[in-house]
Amino acid sequence: xxxxxxxxxxxxxxxxxxxxxxxxxxxxxxxxxxxxxxxxxxxxxxxxxxxxxxxxxxxxxxxxxxxxxxxxxxxxxxxxxxxxxxxxxxxxxxxxxxxxxxxxxxxxxxxxxxxxxxxxxxxxxxx
Length: 127
Known about the structure:
Layout (H helix, E strand, L loop, with lengths): L1 E2 L4 E3 L10 E5 L3 H14 L4 E5 L2 H10 L4 E5 L7 H11 L4 E5 L18 H9 L1
Parallel strand pairs: 3-4, 3-5, 5-6
Antiparallel strand pairs: 1-2, 2-4
C-alpha cells in the first residue's frame, strides 16, 4: 500500500493498469473504508483513491484521470453538492454519485444512492 499525506490513500501500486478509477470522499473514516472495501470486492481490478477532505479531493480529481466519484452528501469544509458542482463544471465526463448517510429514503435521482450495495455499484458504473 502507498500512503500519501494524511487524508489520501491509494489502494495499491499493482493497480497501475486498471480500467476503472474511483475516488471516494467522506469525512468519516469508517464509512470511507467500508465503501472502498465494497468497491474492491465488486470491482477487483479497480483503483480507489480515498479522501476525507472534499477540497483536496477536488484538486486531485481535476488533475488526474478519474471515472467515478462516490462522495458523502454532508461533509465539511465543503458538502457533496459543492464538490459535484466543481467537478461537473470542470470535468463533466466524470460521474459523481452522492451518498446520503442521513437516513433518508434511498433514491437514485440526483445521484443519491443509499444504502449502497454491490448491485447498485455495478449499475452506477455500467449505466
